[in-house]
């Protein structure tokens, strides 16, 4: 099992390396060819549990066994890295992680995709953030947050200068462009989540490793146009659009955790939530942790 954990670690924490740059998002090295680029990438074409997917809200199955998404991130030192195919913020283990079904997963890195990889009812969003976690025995859990354009995102706000520095380093031809960020405040990414979608999938980049536990938050957040430009700036032109097309479900179910669903189900009309906006409840899914 040690080797499996080691393989998963290598997939999750990749350093800048030419062999990993041999895949892309267009042409002969694009997503439809990933499976044939390397024997290590077979799962990209033959796997049956691939990500991302289109989530159809009406088909998501409310699962009373799902628990609130317990995240216990601490502020920790991070390093912003240009992996070539996306920009990652890597952490040391002191950042903490999350618990799923009693199992601990440590946050290893987060990175951004533009536009989003997962779609909701066919809608693709401008940005998707992936928080990549791994357990001691090599299991991977990813939390995905979708973003619309709007107000600035407070989490990205603190990375404004590091993103600029990283862009400068890349432009100066530094092969291993990375910028130590210092202490990263994680408060804004661990807000409690009232609603999320859960399914079993894969990494969305080669080697497309499967049995990844996905949690896609129901709340769509916002970032500003300036921030969108900033987070794409360090990437080469061919990697500025770095989202893999959606993959077939192949009979998989998407489960729904929704704090308020039991009320609705039994028609108590309790409406203990404060959603009175009249829309489809997605605007009030998060609440701040006290
Ligand atoms: Zn990703």
UniProtKB/TrEMBL annotation:
One of its GO terms (biological process) is one-carbon metabolic process. Residues 21-258 form the Alpha-carbonic anhydrase domain. InterPro entries: Alpha_CA_prokaryot-like (IPR041891), CA_dom (IPR001148), CA_dom_sf (IPR036398), Carbonic_anhydrase_a-class (IPR023561), Carbonic_anhydrase_a-class_CS (IPR018338). Its EC number is 4.2.1.1. It comes from the Eukaryota. Reversible hydration of carbon dioxide. Belongs to the alpha-carbonic anhydrase family. This is Carbonic anhydrase. It comes from Acorus calamus. The gene is NEC3.
């Amino acid at each position: 099992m040690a080797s499996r954990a080691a393989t998963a670690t290598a997939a999750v924490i990749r350093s800048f390396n030419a062999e990993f740059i041999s895949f892309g998002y267009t042409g002969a090295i694009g997503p439809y060819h990933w499976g044939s680029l390397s024997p290590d990438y077979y799962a990209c074409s033959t796997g049956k549990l691939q990500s991302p997917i289109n989530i159809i809200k009406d088909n998501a199955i409310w699962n009373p066994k799902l628990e609130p998404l317990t995240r216990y991130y601490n502020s920790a030192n991070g390093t912003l890295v240009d992996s070539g195919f996306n920009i990652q913020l890597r952490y040391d283990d002191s950042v903490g992680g999350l618990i799923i079904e009693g199992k601990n997963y440590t946050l290893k890195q987060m990175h951004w995709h533009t536009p989003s990889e997962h779609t909701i009812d066919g809608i693709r969003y401008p940005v998707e953030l992936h928080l990549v976690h791994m357990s001691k025995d090599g299991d991977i859990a990813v939390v995905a947050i979708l973003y619309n354009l709007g107000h600035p995102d407070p989490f990205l706000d603190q990375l404004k200068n590091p993103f600029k520095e990283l862009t400068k380093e890349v432009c100066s031809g530094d092969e291993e462009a990375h910028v130590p960020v210092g202490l990263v405040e994680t408060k804004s990414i661990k807000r409690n989540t009232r609603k999320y979608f859960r399914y079993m999938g894969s990494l969305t980049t080669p080697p497309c490793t499967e049995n990844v536990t996905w949690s896609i938050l129901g709340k769509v957040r916002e970032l500003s146009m300036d921030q969108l430009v900033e987070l794409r700036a360090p990437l080469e032109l061919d990697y500025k659009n770095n989202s893999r097309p959606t993959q077939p479900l192949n009979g998989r179910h998407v489960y729904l955790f929704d704090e308020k669903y039991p009320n609705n189900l039994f028609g108590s009309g309790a409406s203990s939530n404060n959603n009175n906006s009249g829309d489809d409840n997605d605007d009030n899914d998060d609440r701040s942790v006290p």
